[in-house]
Amino acid sequence: MDIPDYGVEGACLSIIGALGQKPRPDSLSSLEGFEQFLEAAEAPRSPGGAIDLGTTTLSLNYEAGSDLPAGMYP
After folding, report:
1. 22-47: buried (b, 16+ CB within 10 Å) or exposed (e) per residue?
2. What is the domain count for the chain?
3. Using CA atoms, how far apart are residues 55 and 33, in angstroms rounded to an integer?
4. Is residue 13 a contact partner of residue 25, using CB atoms and an 8 Å limit?
5. Is residue 22 in some structural domain?
6. Where are the beta strands (DSSP E) in 17-70?
7. Quick one: which of 74, 54, 55 has its CA closest to 66?
8. Number of C-beta neighbours around residue 54 at 10 A
9. What is the pLDDT of residues 12-47, one digit of tens each?
10. Residue 36 lies in a domain
């Protein structure tokens, strides 16, 4: 996807979520970045260790206003 006004060119948009979960869009820097993300997700990692996704990502979560703490939703 390209968003020229924000300097985004060739980004990859992925919809992530499992059954019973709310799907969320993730924007990754490129198709190659998405492939690195998938590899990182499948790689073994130590408990509590940092996770290197191999790329930058922007995730958006959507929540019902009733699920938000008081003061965050009018």
Report:
1. eeeebbbbeeebbebbeeeeeeeeee
2. 1
3. 5
4. yes
5. yes
6. 24-28, 57-59
7. 74
8. 19
9. 877 777 777 777 777 777 778 778 877 877 888 778
10. yes
Under a CB-based contact definition with an 8 Å cutoff, are residues 27 and 11 in contact? yes
Average pLDDT over residues 56-69: 77
CA distance 34 to 11: 9
Q: Is residue 69 part of a domain?
A: no
- Residue appearing with tokens 């006004």: 5
Residue 72 maps to a domain: no
Closest CA to 58 of 16, 35, 25, 34: 25
Phi, psi dihedrals of residue 11, rounded to the nearest 5°: -75, 165
Task: Give the tokens for residue 63.
Answer: 């929540």
Q: Which domain holds residue 49?
A: 4-61
* Residue whose token pair is 């060739």: 10
